[in-house]
Amino acid sequence: MKAHVFHGPGHSAWEEVPDPHVKDPTDAVVRVGAVTVCGTDLHILKGDVPEVRPGTVLGHEAVGEIVEVGGDVRTVRPGDRVLVSCISACGRCRYCRESMYGQCLGGGGWILGHTIDGTQAEYVRVPFADLSVHPLPATVTSEDAVLLADIFPTAYEVGVLNGRVRPGDTVVVVGAGPVGLAAVATARLFAPERIVAVDVDPSRLRAAREFGADAVADARETPGQLVADLTDGLGADVTIEAVGVPETFEMCARMVRPGGHVANVGVHGGPATLHLEDLWIRNVTITTGLVDTRTTPTLLRMAAAGRLPTTRLVTHTFPLDRMEEAYDVFARAADTGALKVVLGGPRREVAVPATG
């Protein structure tokens, strides 16, 4: 089969690799029908995730059809259309019993495209299939469903739920990329008073308004002053960091009010300064996290009911064998206008919004 293989920082290729097969009785093999590229994949290519060894097939999100299952798999069978979760769960260890699947001690967690071959391929082996794939309702398209493998659960769990968004809150989302936009959309489920989106890209700020932001701010100007003006100087109840660089984390810490929450979602490839000399006295809660995907069934039901704006996130689609082109388009989002690229369906592009 063909797959997208990591060959070290800055190097990858769509090339021939051996077909995957069931190794353990809890495995399933999935024929990939739709897959996407994540910001984490870009971090891997930059060398920010050294655990990924050269020769690994990248990718941790997919929709496809079950073609083979191990003898212990009970919930899916060949022919079933499924969502492949970005997190695999053994279901038996202490963390899985607490629904902290991202911290699985039994061989799961974030393994696809990380410590084992991933989903950016024609076929993928999925360990612990009973807890790591989700049967899909016919009403949810593959293009929509693939965004529920990682993007929406991450935004919802690590951003909105960890940040404890409540009715009447002022929520600031720093970073209006795919995860940030999903955070805006899912924060609205809790009826905050206002949501402010911060980014440097005018087209992404326009997208944030479409996803439900009440106000937007250019990160290069004075977003903190805007938040102060909107809150009578108190600051935001919740700030969600969805970029993964020191400047945006520190911005979130500055904008949060005393007693507020900073929810870090971004993948950081280097250290960020934690200004405890300022924060110790302000009763601020800071959370970090790897998504557990415990909310995926709920999000799937919401998607089936048309309650999530998944379709609007997909700006480009490509055939699966155009993986390298899709990576290029996604990596140059400022030039291409890309939010999410999906591979596996007919090619589609949107016009790049004017930035003037």
Describe this structure in words.
This protein is an alpha/beta fold and 356 residues long. 27% of the residues lie in helices and 22% in strands. It contains 13 helices and 15 strands. The strands form 3 sheets. Strands 3, 4, 5, 6, 7, 14 and 15 form a 7-stranded mixed sheet that branches. Strands 10-9-8-11-12-13 form a 6-stranded parallel sheet, with helices on both faces. Strand 9, helix 7 (202-211) and strand 10 form a beta-alpha-beta unit. The termini are far apart.
By DSSP (H or I, 4+ residues per run), the number of helices equals 13
Residue windows where pLDDT falls under 50 for at least 5 positions:
346-356
User: Helix fraction?
Assistant: 25-40%
Straight-line N-to-C gap: 45 Å
Task: Assess the beta-strand content as a share of residues.
Answer: 15-25%
Total strand segments: 15
Structural class, please? alpha/beta
Q: Mean pLDDT, rounded to whole units?
A: 95
The major β-sheet equals: 7 strands, mixed
Radius of gyration: 20 Å
Task: Estimate the global geometry from the Cα principal axes.
Answer: globular
Which quaternary structure do these chains form?
Answer: single chain
Pattern of helices and strands: EEEHEEHEHEHHEHEHEHEHEHEHEHHE
How does the SSE layout of this entry go?
Layout: E1 2-6, E2 12-16, E3 28-36, H1 39-46, E4 62-69, E5 81-84, H2 94-97, E6 123-126, H3 129-132, E7 133-135, H4 142-145, H5 151-161, E8 170-174, H6 178-187, E9 194-199, H7 202-211, E10 215-218, H8 223-230, E11 236-241, H9 246-255, E12 256-264, H10 276-279, E13 285-287, H11 296-304, E14 314-318, H12 323-331, H13 333-336, E15 340-343
Parallel strand pairs: 8-9, 8-11, 9-10, 11-12, 12-13, 14-15
Antiparallel strand pairs: 1-2, 3-4, 3-6, 3-15, 4-5, 5-7
Helix pairs in contact: 5-6
